């Protein structure tokens, strides 16, 4: 009898947490889609090109910073890195903010991965799409999807990395305004 009660209680807790996260994911999706569809956003951007790949004659690296404001509040940050040289790749991070804290993050990577085999090098296309639904930034409560599949819950997000990225984007935009 007790085992049945424990099993029922355990299954109830699992189903409750799944229902709660789905509801939260839906609310987060509605919020970021509302930001995406907003037509009253003010956009500040900076594009930095670094170096030339002389063997290929094209830009080796480009960084694009964008901040989307609604009034005086930053509600969206985009950071993009590109390499148009020998090995082309592109990585774009979009961070959606509410009250200056991230609530949804999208990372897209697109490029070429080089595999080294006994027959030599082989280039393969590489694509990765990651969505992070953040329920509580300070307590690191989130759900992560990698290419549409739920990622292992034990995999933490690099909170410090995103905080540094937010600071970097804000400083680049602020430096642009000073120049």
Could you characterize what this model shows?
- The protein has 179 residues and is an alpha+beta fold.
- It is 31% helix and 49% strand.
- It is built from two helices and eight strands.
- The chain has an eight-stranded antiparallel sheet with strand order 1-2-3-4-5-6-7-8, sandwiched between helices.
- It is flat, with a radius of gyration of 21 Å.
- Mean pLDDT is 79; it is low at 9-21 and 53-60.
Layout of helices and strands:
Blueprint: H1 2-37, E1 42-53, E2 58-70, E3 73-83, E4 89-98, E5 101-117, E6 120-136, E7 141-146, E8 149-150, H2 159-178
Radius of gyration over alpha carbons? Answer: 21 Å
Structural class: alpha+beta
Mean pLDDT value:
79
**Strands across the major sheet, in which order?**
1-2-3-4-5-6-7-8
Could you estimate the helical fraction of the residues in percent? 25-40%
Shape: flat
Main sheet makeup: 8 strands, antiparallel
- SSE string: HEEEEEEEEH
Strand content: over 45%
Q: pLDDT under 50 segments (min length 5)?
A: 9-21, 53-60
Distance between the termini: 74 Å
- How many strands appear in the DSSP assignment? 8
How large is the count of helical segments? 2
């Amino acid at each position: 009898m007790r085992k049945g009660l424990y099993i029922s209680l355990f299954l109830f807790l699992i189903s409750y947490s799944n229902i709660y996260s789905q509801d939260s994911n839906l609310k987060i999706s509605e919020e970021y889609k509302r930001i995406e569809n907003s037509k009253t956003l003010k956009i500040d951007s900076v594009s930095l090109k670094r170096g030339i790949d002389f063997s290929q004659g094209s830009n080796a690296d480009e960084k694009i910073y964008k901040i989307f404001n609604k009034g005086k509040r930053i509600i969206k940050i985009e950071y993009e890195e590109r390499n148009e040289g020998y090995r082309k790749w592109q990585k774009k991070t979009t961070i959606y903010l509410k009250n200056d804290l991230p609530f949804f993050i999208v990372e897209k990577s697109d490029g070429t991965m080089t595999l080294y085999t006994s027959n030599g090098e082989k280039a393969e296309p590489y694509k990765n799409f990651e969505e992070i639904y953040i329920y509580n930034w300070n307590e690191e409560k989130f759900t992560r999807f990698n290419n549409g599949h739920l990622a292992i819950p034990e995999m933490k997000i690099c909170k410090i990395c995103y905080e540094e990225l937010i600071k970097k984007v804000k400083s680049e935009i602020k430096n642009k305004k000073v120049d």
